[in-house]
Every structure is written in structure tokens, then in C-alpha cells.
TrEMBL record:
GO terms for molecular function: carboxylic ester hydrolase activity; palmitoyl-(protein) hydrolase activity. SUPFAM superfamilies: alpha/beta-Hydrolases. It comes from Akanthomyces muscarius (Entomopathogenic fungus). PANTHER family: LYSOPHOSPHOLIPASE-RELATED (PTHR10655), PHOSPHOLIPASE_CARBOXYLESTERASE_THIOESTERASE DOMAIN-CONTAINING PROTEIN (PTHR10655:SF63). Residues 12-182, 202-265 form the Phospholipase/carboxylesterase/thioesterase domain. It holds the Pfam family Abhydrolase_2. This is Phospholipase/carboxylesterase/thioesterase domain-containing protein. Belongs to the AB hydrolase superfamily. AB hydrolase 2 family. GO terms for cellular component: cytoplasm.
Amino acid sequence: MEPNTHVCGPAQGQPHTHTIIFLHGRDSDAHEFADELFESEGSTDSAAPEQDRTLPGLLPTVRWVFPAAPLMQSQRFNSAMSQWFDMWAVEDPEVKSELQRNGLHRSIHAVLAIVEAETKLVPKNRIFLCGISQGFATALSLLLAEGQGGFAGLIGLCSWLPFSSEVEAKISECTSEMPLFSSLQALYYSENPLKTPLSSRLKATPILLGHTLDDAVVPLENAQRMKNALSLLEFKKVDWHVYEDGGHWINEPQGVDDIIAFIKENWE
């Protein structure tokens, strides 16, 4: 486990049944993100009005793992910042996209090691891989780089798909399924392919995407483009939610409710 990884849960006296790995956004850190995430609340249950409506309160048997992005030099701002990969413009990730490649490959490798460590504690089908903004851009890239699927599900908030133009080009160029997923592996992982892609299991991975209309950091159009790419890649279950408000964050309480419902629906 990386030394800066923040881990909490399950609640005292509760068994460890599932792991949620949650990647923070750019220019944040694992502890800060975890604290803010755990302040978000879902709807009050009229049958149990005193119940803790935070994510840890509603999911007491979950082990929460928050990896920390490395400090990486930003070419645009000429300073070091916490980021999973360098990029020129969050609002338009296609600008100078080559800046993203090396850092993204390194971050995929680091998060894969965390996933591997967690599979020694619970099966992979009890691990949810999640992220917000650049964190989910990394998590989704990891899924395509690994090529195996088998996660309980992915949850992405306020995010986009890196190298969208290249993915769309590969989709239009490929004439059969296996070369397509092999080429995506090569796009998101610079080393030799990790394993032979298992496209049927990969495409069965449930995915939840949430975005707000008032997100001033990542335009809704970027998230819609990601959703459309996943549809073209024939992912079988992509839940798409757009909320009126919430900014570059989680809508409360409906967005929290949707996360809880998605997790419980895919709870093994």
C-alpha cells in the first residue's frame, strides 16, 4: 500500500465485506477529500429519522481506501501540484493531450498495485473503483488498461474520458471486438498488455456516472462524450444521472442516494 494512502472503516465491530477505492480530484489530497466526502448526506429515512445518512453510516461494513495522487510538475502553471497526470486544460482535455500520457500510465500502475493489495482481503467482485474529476478519469483509464473487468462497479463524478478522440477513432477503425480492446489497452498502458482482454466481462462492469448542470470545472459535454463512448464500446450497464446543482461535487441528497442505491444493487 502506498504510504500516503488514507484508509478508514469498516465501522467498529463490523466485518469487512467490501472495499471502495476512491480517487480524489486534481489539486486535492486523500485526507481532505475523504473528510469532505464523508460530510455528504443522503435523504432522511422517515422510518429511521435518526440514522446516520453519511456514506460510512449507510455502509458500515465497507473499507474505504483513498489513494493519494503524486506531486507532479504542471507545465501550464510551472509549479508542482497534486495530480494523477499533468494536463493543460481540465475544461478541454484534448488540448495538448500528450502531456497526460506518462503521468496517467504511472498512476494506473500505482492504483493497480492498490487494487491487487485489496484483492488479498476481499474478492475483486466486492471492490468498487470510484473517482471524482481527474480521479475518475484515471479509474476509467485503469479499467480499459487492465482489460479484465470483474469489479463490483465503477462510480464516476464530474469527469471525462482521457484521449476521447483517439478512443472514438479506434472504435470507428476496428472491425472486430478483440483488436479494439487490445488497442485500448495499448492506449492507456504503455508497457506490455497486462493480460489478454476479456471483453465480455469487461463490458459487464456496472458504471454509475453523475454530473451537475452547474459544474464550473468540467463541462457537462465532456461527461456526455464519455457516456457516449462507453455506449459505443457496448458497456451493458451505464447509469447516467444529471443533477440541477451541486457544483464540481456530489449533489445532495439525491446524488448520495443514487450512489448508495448503485452500490447496494451491485453488492455481492
